[in-house]
Amino acid sequence: MNIAFVLLTHNPDEPAGIERSIAALAAGLRELGHHALIIAAGPATPDDGEDLLRLDSLTLPRPALEEHLTALLTDPAPVEREVRRLLTGNEADLVCWVDAVWGLGYLSPAPADMATALMVHVPRTDAPLYQSLGHRPGRVLTVSDFMIEELAREGLDTGEWAVVPNALMHTITLPTPDEREALREHGPVRIVARAEPHKGIAELLKAYPAGLGRPLEIVLAEAGFEYWPGMQNEVITECRALAAALPDVEILPALPWQKVPGFLAGAAATVISSTSPETFGNVAAEALSVGTPVVGYGLGHLPALTGPAGRMTALESGPEALWKALTTLLGDQAAYHAVSQHGPRQVAAHTPAAVAQAFLTATGMIR
Questions:
Q1: In the chain, domain spans
Q2: CA spacing 20 to 30 A to 153: which of 236, 253, 300, 360?
Q3: In 119-273, which residue ranges form alpha helices assigned H by DSSP?
Q4: 177-346 is classed in which CATH architecture?
Q5: What is the pLDDT, as a whole number, of residue 248?
Q6: What is the mean predicted confidence (pLDDT) over 138-163?
Q7: For 2-167+351-362, CATH number?
Q8: CA gap 223, 43 in Å, rounded
Q9: What is the pLDDT of residues 334-347, one digit of tens each?
Q10: Facing residues of 38 across strands?
């Protein structure tokens, strides 16, 4: 089968959860013997593969704002024609709009006889989502039960929506028990996050506890989109300034996707300090897959994702509670190793092939 995904912001190694999830899903579909391609806006990059198709009719600035896209699509006809041509020329059996806006769901430029699906990765109840739903996609997909419940609370009819979780694209050998014990005793705390205010990194640094006694290494990555001009630069500048005044704290640049699991495997623990709900939690899943405990706020899908392999605190308790939960766990040898050993089991089902199978079933492409 030929499956097409439309995600205008897609780039290889883009440090963003939706882009990474689509790459993993496409890899799973290929593993099952299907052809998966991704349609994205220009410009092309040297790392583009043959299954990444760039639109000639649309080039995005980097970083792009949603208002940039709106302006570029004042007349959407050229983009709609090119998308339809690519879908027809590649004999797509199904096209999946990966987002209401960045995935062109609100335009839904599919040939009349082609099966369609809409993905909803983040909570939104705005005009583009309703326009997307108005095109009556064959299936609406989201990434967690939290999203089903959250948007139902917002008044959407999610009764027929299907959950297709994100997949873990890269797996590595886990640290041995002795290596894990050494990490518990002296290893660094490592965090991977997009440079977004709601990731809560600045607040976490402001609450940094005296006497942590181990390095804190934070990867802050700039994506190809942001919510207002200069947002990512503001976040990184503030976090670097805060880190410079703290002992053993380092702000690191983005990592290639395949290096993230290894980076997290070398951590005593990671912290997910997002102050708005994680609708899935890619970084948490990757940490769990390598036996690295996860501490975070009990928001969104994170508590269900981590289960016994995590330590959740209340958002209203603030970042101080995250640090306390972290240091308490690191100081309890038995509890730490129990959490670490449960992590890989918690996400064992999130293989690309298994998630691809769930996607095909949810979209009705297989029975």
A1: 2-167+351-362, 177-346
A2: 360
A3: 127-134, 145-153, 177-186, 201-206, 231-244, 260-265
A4: 3-Layer(aba) Sandwich (3.40)
A5: 95
A6: 97
A7: 3.40.50.2000
A8: 15
A9: 999 999 999 999 99
A10: 5, 52
